[in-house]
Amino acid sequence: MRDKETITGIQRPEAVETVTPPPARPLRHRWFGMLKETFIRASHWEYWPVYVFYAPVIPYWLWLSLRARTLFFFSAANPGMPNAGFTLAKKTEIYRLIPVAYYPKTLLYPAGIASDALRQSLDENGLHFPLMAKPDIGDRGVQVKLLHTVSDLEAYCRSSKVDFLIQEFVDYEHEAGVFYYRFPGEAHGHISGIVHKNYLTVTGDGVSSMEQLLQKEDRYFIQLPRLRTTYGARLDEVLPKGLRYTLPYGSHCRGAKFTDASHQADHALRQTMDELFQQIPGFHYGRMDVKFKSWDDLRAGTNFSIIELNGAASEPAHIYDPAHSVFFAWKEVCRHWRLLYQISKANAVRSGLNLMRMPEGLRMMKTHFRNLKLMR
User: Fold this and answer.
1) Of 169, 191, 211, which residue constitutes the final position of a domain?
2) What is the pTM of this model?
């Protein structure tokens, strides 16, 4: 049951079809904001651009590629997933690998579908607000949106240039990413890391506007440009004292704080995860993002729902805990790449699979960037 003193997202009436733009901010305030955001991103490695963070460890990827004689040495890691789950893996295809009881009710819609047909389909299938919308082929939380109203649904339908999913909203309190791997032929797998995702949350004081509350936390401050675009003048509203506002996106780039919860991987949780993952055919390496009521429930295999299942491109997201250094993060990335290489090589030998060669891999990446451009 949702906390009565918490609202998830900003509740908007059905009649509202557009977001009122915020008043123009003085130039000096905009410059200060830009300088502050730049300083925050530069001084905290977890906010560095992807290419900057990964640049120092790319030589290790190239070394593994040299040993495998292909840059795409990962391609046999997860035989059950398209491209081993590295990219262009449709969520609908991945969900089909998972027992239906383990993930929320999900429907696929083509880009350009008429909003009337979409609403009728949702009604016929018993899906009601709030709902989650996301691209069928996603990337780092791009175009994932919580929908509260028909207006939200219609706006998302109009803006999406790619096929998308509408999914029932799972209202469990916790979200975590469990990184799991199992070598071919092993009876049991391993948990190599767990990240707990703490959503962007502010608590009203009865005086400050939502924007003023967000400005107090560096992590939230750098999200303000995105939030202004999404919510406009509503950020000027004052939350009643004690009322919490939560943005339920378990994405680091959407303001969630990641903390390392690897200590939760006790025998009971490892056993439950092992039983769950071994029901997913052709899966050996990746991260499962799951929402759940409590850690005890997750250990018992109850009151949880799988939100995403990521394959070869999975990051060991526990590295983004602010308590970890960039050197720890680089070490963990290399450790997981080594596991990816070893598992893919073992699968190739055991099952007679051929690793992806350069022409096929380049076509895959070209299609990936074309799809990403459509989403942005």
Assistant:
1) 169
2) 0.89
Residue 274 lies in a domain: yes
Distances (CA, A) of 193 to 176, 179, 190, 211: 10, 5, 9, 34
Q: Is the alpha carbon torsion for 324, 330, 331, 336 positive or negative?
A: positive
Final residue belonging to a domain, choices 118, 150, 169: 169
Task: Determine if residue 352 is left, alpha or beta; phi over 0 gives left, psi from -120 to 50 gives alpha, anything else beta.
Answer: left
What residues make up the domain containing 57?
44-102+172-199+248-375
Per-residue pLDDT in tens (0 to 9) along the chain, 376 residues:
334 344 445 443 333 334 555 555 555 567 777 888 899 889 999 999 999 999 999 999 999 999 999 999 999 999 999 999 999 889 999 999 999 999 999 999 999 999 999 999 999 999 999 999 999 987 777 888 999 999 999 999 999 999 999 999 999 999 999 999 999 999 999 999 999 999 888 899 999 998 999 899 898 898 888 888 877 788 888 989 999 888 766 677 778 899 999 999 999 999 999 999 999 999 999 999 999 999 999 999 999 999 999 999 999 999 999 999 999 999 999 999 999 999 999 999 999 999 999 999 999 999 998 888 887 7
Are the beta carbons of 222 and 252 closer than 8 angstroms?
no
Instruction: Report how many domains make up the chain.
Output: 2
CATH code at position 83: 3.30.470.20
155 plus 89 within the same structural domain: no
